[in-house]
Q: What sequence folds into this?
């Protein structure tokens, strides 16, 4: 198989505000704007960003739970948007999703066994025996006892429910799993169990993940590459270690600086960025980050910075740190600097 | 990890459900009382020809008799057996009530799911239902019957139509709430097609509130039928129905109270039984109260 497993090109989603029956033009929420990335087989791509930056919309666009306004999603080179009903149905087997909330993403009226075998039964008829064998197999894969299959979700703990969510996603043997804040709703100790489960499954089955999170600690633990989103756009996409060791985009730098570090002796740096995320209804001109950016120059308010490839394989959208013209270079020191996190 | 390697034993779910059901019935006596009462009424009504006399047989010499061993509830102003008429009246009342409620529930469910899931139909359907709701039930039924003439079939239609809005609105509101649930999205991600999503993930959520609403509709339908018959636009007067009986005996209340008490009490008991059953079923279908083990 040549080329990346998943390729996303210029994905865009605008939500109109209101129906606009009586108005000539309705304001748009620019949830996702011009997002491009690719995921190789067996790779974990993390998408991080603050709430409301369009992370979850990207996940929903990938799963075609919402239709994109523009752009393409390619799986093995096939455009998902062009697929008709039946082909789309078949394509769903390749890509599955693990949801954020393990409480509301499981139907409270179905047993664990019914929940995790349902996707398979959408594609083929299973006998009672086959269904039970499949459910037992899936439950074992996610580290649960097969006896759990008669339980209702309300009889399970949060961690067990999220395991069910993962088992459901695994049931179709997908190549790619999209995990939208898959561990955010769980306790820290349970988070670790679920993350390790995901890593084990990735090794065993060669799964690729698109892992959406706001928790940088989690991202550092499991990511191969990380995309940082701000107000619907990717501002930096870099290999995980490089990103954490040496963030280039000022927003990435601020995000990493703001993440809590479990070390009482370390002095917390004041977050260098102030203010709130602007509204995506009326985003700032030019670089969306410029009103909060300590490095902003005049150009930032006028022109949207393009994603510029840097020497170490990352791409960054910043006029100051990664100017589009000229040779890719190492980040220079701006008006503020932070010691990279160890 | 011993748990994982333990042999899997499958409990036959069918038997489990039955025992769970019987326990639930014990825990929810309302179902038992309401359902039992209703079942008793239905059996009594169905078996009427076996034990009750002829409800149409007139005997002018035995008019307005008090209850006796022969005529348990006495006789009415035309000398007809009130007991037989009450029992045969139950057939009409129950039939009209149950069939109207079933029709209203099924049609309302269908319309409500369409309105809740297909956004483009929502506005049209709901405005239509608003229009229906603005007309008083009895008035609408009378108008419909006036259009076609009396008859049991049209009576059922005339009682069903005014009941549609309440069911439709209820189903629509539940569907609107459930369709955005992550588990519905998860089902779509898993490749489930729309009919299956509706059937397996959306419809079951409507059942608890639908049960209660159907019971209310059923009770309402029984009362409407009695009301229409009382007004003389329902069941033709020669056919015994509780509404007809109350209407024709209201002048003789002081002379022969049984002629009006018998159908009146039956009406009240039937409506009570239906409402109890509805309340009990709601508790039964609520997944939070469900215990499997």
A:
């Amino acid at each position: 198989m040549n080329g990346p497993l998943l390729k996303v090109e210029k994905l865009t989603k605008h939500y109109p505000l209101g129906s606009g029956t009586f108005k000539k033009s309705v304001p748009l929420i620019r949830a996702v704007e011009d997002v491009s990335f690719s995921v190789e087989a067996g790779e974990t791509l993390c998408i991080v960003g603050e709430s409301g930056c369009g992370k979850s919309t990207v996940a929903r666009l990938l799963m075609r739970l919402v239709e994109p306004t523009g752009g393409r999603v390619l799986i093995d080179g096939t455009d998902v948007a062009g697929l008709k009903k039946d082909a789309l149905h078949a394509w769903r087997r390749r890509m599955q999703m693990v949801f954020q909330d393990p409480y509301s993403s499981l139907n409270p009226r179905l047993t664990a066994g019914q929940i995790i075998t349902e996707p398979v039964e959408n594609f083929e008829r299973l006998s009672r025996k086959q269904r039970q064998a499949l459910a037992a197999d899936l439950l074992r894969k996610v580290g649960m006892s097969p006896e759990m299959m008669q339980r209702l979700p309300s009889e399970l703990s949060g961690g067990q429910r999220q395991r069910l969510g993962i088992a459901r996603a695994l049931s179709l043997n997908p190549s790619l799993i999209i995990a939208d804040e898959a561990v955010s709703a769980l306790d820290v100790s349970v988070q670790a169990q679920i993350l390790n489960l995901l890593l084990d499954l990735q090794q065993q089955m060669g799964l690729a993940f698109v892992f959406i999170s706001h928790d940088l600690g989690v991202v550092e633990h499991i990511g191969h590459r990380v995309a940082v989103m701000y107000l619907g756009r990717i501002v930096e996409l870099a290999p995980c270690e490089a990103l954490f060791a040496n963030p280039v985009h000022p927003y990435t730098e601020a995000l990493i600086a703001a993440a809590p570090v479990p070390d009482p002796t370390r002095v917390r740096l004041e977050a260098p960025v102030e203010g709130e995320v602007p509204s995506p209804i009326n985003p700032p001109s030019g670089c969306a980050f410029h009103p909060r950016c300590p490095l902003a120059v005049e150009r930032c308010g006028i022109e949207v910075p393009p994603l510029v490839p840097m020497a170490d394989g990352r791409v960054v959208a910043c006029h100051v740190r990664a100017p589009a013209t000229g040779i890719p270079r190492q980040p220079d020191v701006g008006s503020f600097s932070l010691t990279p996190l160890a | 990890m011993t748990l994982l390697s333990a042999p899997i034993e499958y409990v036959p779910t069918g038997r489990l459900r039955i025992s769970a059901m019987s326990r639930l019935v014990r825990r929810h006596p309302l179902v038992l009382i309401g359902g039992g009462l209703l079942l008793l009424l239905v059996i009594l009504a169905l078996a009427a020809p076996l034990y009750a006399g002829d409800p149409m047989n007139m005997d002018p010499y035995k008019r307005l008799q008090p209850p006796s061993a022969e005529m348990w509830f006495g006789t009415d102003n035309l000398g007809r057996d009130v007991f037989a008429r009450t029992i045969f009246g139950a057939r009409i009342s129950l039939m009209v009530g149950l069939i109207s409620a079933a029709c209203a529930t099924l049609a309302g469910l269908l319309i409500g799911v369409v309105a809740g899931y297909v956004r483009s139909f929502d506005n049209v359907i709901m405005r239509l239902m608003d229009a229906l709701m603005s007309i008083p039930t009895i008035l609408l039924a009378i108008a419909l019957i006036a259009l076609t003439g009396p008859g049991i079939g049209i009576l059922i239609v005339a009682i069903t139509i005014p009941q549609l809005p309440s069911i439709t609105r209820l189903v629509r509101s539940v569907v609107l709430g459930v369709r955005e649930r992550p588990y519905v999205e998860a089902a779509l991600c898993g490749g489930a097609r729309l009919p299956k999503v509706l059937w397996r993930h959306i419809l079951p959520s409507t059942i608890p509130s639908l049960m209660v609403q159907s019971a209310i509709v059923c009770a309402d339908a029984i009362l409407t039928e009695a009301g229409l018959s009382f007004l003389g636009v329902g069941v033709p007067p020669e056919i015994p129905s509780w509404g007809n009986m109350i209407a024709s005996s209201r002048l003789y209340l002081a002379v022969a109270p049984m002629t009006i008490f018998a159908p009146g009490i039956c009406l009240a008991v039937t409506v009570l039984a239906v409402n109890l059953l509805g309340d009990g079923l709601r508790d039964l279908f609520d997944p939070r109260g469900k215990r499997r083990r």
The first helix of chain A runs from residue 55 to 62. The longest strand of chain A covers residues 28-39.
